[in-house]
Amino acid sequence: MTTEEQTEHVHGYTSEKSSHLKRLRRIEGQVRGLQRMVEEDKYCIDILTQVSAATKALQSFSLELLDEHLSHCVVEAAQRGGPEAEEKVREASDAIARLVRS
């Protein structure tokens, strides 16, 4: 893909970009809260509860992003066919495998 094509390309998440950024800022706040809890010597179980909440928030975000990738990037590539379609399906499969392992 040329630089010009990359500039013109719209990602599947683009329409939800502001919403995604808001969610990521919230998750960032959760992680900063975890740092504060450790600095303040909070109870281990309370920290673990917050780790679980942050982990679930990231998992939820990643699943939404994956859904957008499948419904936009993969579908468009599949409609065009050829090696690009195979590459997008392989990328999606690899991403799903990484999510399942995490």
TrEMBL record:
Compositionally skewed regions (Basic and acidic residues) per UniProt: 1-11
Protein name per UniProt: Metal-sensitive transcriptional regulator
Region (Disordered): 1-21
Superkingdom per UniProt: Bacteria
Keywords for this protein: Copper
Cleavable signal peptide: none
Family membership: Belongs to the CsoR family.
